[in-house]
Amino acid sequence: MKFLLLIYFIFVFGISFSKSRNIFSISKVYLVILFTFFGEVFWENQNPYILFLVFFLISISFLIFIIESNITFIQSSIVISPIAVRKMERRIWVLSLIPILAQFYLINSIGDFSSFISSINSRVVSWQSFGVAILLIKVINVLNYLYFIIIIKFHPINKRNIYLYLVHLIIFIGISLLSGSRSTLLWNFVFMLMFYNFSIKKVSLRWATIGSICILITASFIGFIRSSGIKYENNTFSIQKNVDQKLEFSNFSYGIVPLEKLFEKNVISDPEYGWTYITAITNLVPRSIWPDKPPSGGVIITEKYFDNRYDGYSYFTTGVISEAIINFGFLFGIVFGLFQMSVLLILLAQFAKKRLFFQRKNYNMFEASIYPFLLVGVCSYLYTEFTTNTISLFVYKIFEFYIIYLFVVGPRNNYFIVQK
Fold first, then answer.
1. Whole-prediction pTM value?
2. Is 318 exposed, middle or buried (0-12, 13-18, 19+ CB in 10 A)?
3. Residues 395, 284 contacting (CB under 8 angstroms)
4. Contacts of 339 (CB under 8 A, 6+ apart)
5. Is residue 328's pLDDT more than 90?
6. CA of 204: how far to CAs of 21, 61, 209, in Å?
7. What's the chain look like in SS3?
8. Which residue(s) pair with 239 in the sheet?
9. Contacts (Cβ under 8 Å, ≥6 apart) of 92
10. Average pLDDT, the chain
């Protein structure tokens, strides 16, 4: 059965290439994310119900094949004066002081650098009172992404601009590693590659494959270091646990684990009836103001179905199907989850078709910049918690990018372009 499912996946992936040659088309990104977080289903024995669910998730791709075949992107450069580029650069560096200073503040508040490094593994609890500082630190992601767009999109750009960007990139990598989150670091490189593909030059399958493998290996290595327990003493980094560990490839089962547990329990005795979706709004209220605000889907599934395995230090992610099941039970939950994923993908495809069909003299810089956020964010509902992904997509990415974009670039969106 799993072999047949793999053959079906390859078949659908092949159809995706016949419908659109763009390596980052919606269906390809969706199927790659599905494979990355549900891949274990193709080589490990699984509950038959999970196999059927993955079959239906793969089949959703057919809904967007027709739409995405009509989406066209024009690779181009924007002619702008060097003075304007320097102004944008200065504004980015001024704003970059905010996450840099916030990072120093967080380290100092924890104690010293050694204490901070030791706290990374328990950051869910250790850093829970530093929400504002963490929010400010995350601004570096958006700043570096916008900086990258300016460097590759505007023309002319000189060596000085490139060197300054590389310095900023190193700062971004350093701060991202200190966050302890693999996604904080790696997704930015995915967004950069996508923007380059859509707006500058199409990325070949070979380079996309090499980039994907590098990102997966890096994610596994960071996971290995994090799970081993890292400490900093006498100006030296070391691993706390003296155990024989291997690189982590647990991401291939992220989407499967919650489903396995739910089918093992077999009964949803106390469904949430949609409340975990409401937490995408209520979670924006600080806990100091609303201490007893309702828990999100990840908290619910960890505490009720995994017996609070991590004692509040970490939580399982849900994914679109698992979250729907804990809200509405198995039958209606599965139907709702599949419907929800289908609608989100169709809306994304319609947005790309209507808003990103670039005309030669009407290039919307802002919409082109946030499209990689939307593309990855919508497809990520496959394996992520609804609340976390929604807030991350619309608050920490799109809204933050919009505010920073207005400050750095200005309110102007439409540019005259030079087609390559």
1. 0.85
2. buried
3. yes
4. none
5. yes
6. 10, 22, 9
7. CHHHHHHHHHHHHHHHHHHCCCCCCHHHHHHHHHHHHHHHHHCCCCCHHHHHHHHHHHHCCHHHHHHHCCCCCCCEEEECCHHHHHHHHHHHHHHHHHHHHHHHHHHHHHCCHHHHHHHHHHHHHHCCCCHHHHHHHCHHHHHHHHHHHHHHHEECCCHHHHHHHHHHHHHHHHHHHHCCCHHHHHHHHHHHHHHHHHHCCCCCHHHHHHHHHHHHHHHHHHHHHHHHCEEEECCEEEECCCCCCCCCCHHHHCCCHHHHHHHHHCCCCCCCCCHHHHHHHHCCCCCCCCCCCCCCHHHHHHHHHCCCCCCCCCCCCCCHHHHHHHHHCHHHHHHHHHHHHHHHHHHHHHHHHHHCCCECCEEEHHHHHHHHHHHHHHHHCCCCCHHHHHHHHHHHHHHHHHHHHHHHCCCCCEECEEEC
8. 230
9. 143, 146, 147, 150, 168, 408
10. 82
pLDDT at 363 over 80: no
Provide φ and ψ at 77, rounded to 5°: -120, 155
Q: How many residues does the chain have?
A: 420
Select from 5, 68, 73, 72 the least CA-distant residue to 34.
5
Question: CA 386, 391, 392: angle at the middle one, nearest 5?
Answer: 100
Q: How far is CA 108 from CA 91, 128, 133, 136, in A?
A: 27, 15, 12, 15
Residues 6+ apart with CB under 8 A from 282: 290, 293, 294
What is the structure's pLDDT at 108? 87
pLDDT in tens, 165-192: 999 999 999 888 887 777 777 888 889 9
- pLDDT, residue 225, reads 55
Task: Give residue-wise pLDDT tens across range 113-163.
Answer: 777 777 776 666 677 677 788 889 889 999 999 999 999 888 778 888 899
pLDDT at 8 over 80: yes
Name the least confident of 72-76, 286-290, 337-341: 72-76
